[in-house]
Amino acid sequence: MKLQQLYSYTRKAIDHYQLIESGDKIAIGISGGKDSLTLLYALSGLRRFYPQKFDLVAVTVDLGYENFDLTAVSKLCHDLDVSYHIVNTEIAKILFEERNEKPTCSLCAKMRKGALNQAIKELGCNKVAYAHHMDDVIETYLFQKNRNMICDWYGLKEKSIRHGYQIIRPLLNFTKSELQQYCNENGVSFGIDESNLTNHYTRNVIRHTQIEKMSRDEKEAWILKIQNENEVWQTKREVIEEFFKDWNKDIDSLLDQEDAWLYLDTFLFHSLHHHFSKKYMEELCVQLKRNLLIEIENYLLERHGGKLYFMPSPKDVYYKLDELEFKDYADFVIKNEGKTIEMFSVDASDFPLVIRRVRANDTIQMRFGNKNVHRFFVDRKISKIYRKYWLVVENNVGNVIFVPGLGCDVGHYSQNQQFYFKINGLD
């Protein structure tokens, strides 16, 4: 493949998907392999005559195990008039020398991504260009399907957003062999990641046993299949999002959907911002046919009274107040007006007041006798998640004098100075 062909095909992708705009500062992640070096040639060459003016900076994260010549890459960047930034980190080297082990592919990948993200911010780049190609799209798709993953997009997109910057992939119309052909025909020397040669990882197995045996026509057929599936997928997601616009948390209306597992995953995604496996969502749908309270990461999920609740696990709350003022606190608000059930009064002998979470044996003295706060929860059919968020007001001798929803105790109802108390976030 000639240089002009590389420019032409890359520019078509850039124009079609609007990958580059004037004023962009684009980082290219350079691994030293054929893919990233070909991308370096393509973008640096296009920059010379492309109507949109943009800056480039090549970035290599050096973990101490690179099998290519950093000096040679530095010279290449100099010749192409591209600034070169090396992120030196000895973390992986020290870690594995202590264990007398070689670094794992997955751990090194995580370290590189973390270091690259930091470098992109420090360099002021608004975009990062990756050298993923057609083979990578198919490999990612097959990997996702093999893991039964729920994804926003299957395969790889020409552009996406991550960590506040845009990722662009201008080489998705090229195959792996075409990029290697370019390097071979144009004398571009590149490094080889030996971990990619084994079948120790699922992706490698997919690559060696399936993708490498495909012709270009077969790969193009796979790309068309993935595109069609993503179009259907996006339409389905739009329908699901419409469902949630007017949803009143009625759990049965969700479970009655044909793809209830996907509706549930979307509901959780709104808070957690990542997806789960289809299998896990299907199992959870079965469990949610009855009342249930479970913890998912740092959140609580509950079916209660036919409704579905999903809230962050509550943190402990403890306020010690030497005076009361009308104020909006992080966990509650004290107002000068409200409903009668929200009202209580205090005098100087009650201070300091304590605002805290409900405890197991909390009671409050009402006009009709002592009332156990947890009995109140049961009587009012309050969800278990809300119970964990509930607050009480306690006076300086440890007596609960006010419980939201139940009212004040027998000694703190007065027509004098009145305060109205409401828990935030439990509407």
Could you characterize the architecture of this molecule?
The protein is α+β, with helices and mostly antiparallel strands and 427 residues long. It is 40% helix and 20% strand. It contains 14 helices and 20 strands. The protein has helices spanning 3-17, 34-49, 70-79, 91-99, 105-123, 134-146, 176-185, 202-209, 216-245, 251-255, 260-272, 278-287, 373-380, 384-389; strands at 25-29, 55-62, 83-88, 127-129, 159-162, 165-168, 292-296, 299-304, 307-312, 318-321, 327-328, 332-335, 343-344, 353-357, 363-366, 369-372, 391-394, 400-403, 407-408, 419-423. A six-stranded mixed beta sheet has the order 3-2-1-4-6-5. A five-stranded antiparallel beta sheet has the order 10-14-17-18-19, with no helix packed on it. Strand 15 and strand 16 form a beta hairpin. It is elongated, with a radius of gyration of 30 Å. The relative contact order is 0.08.
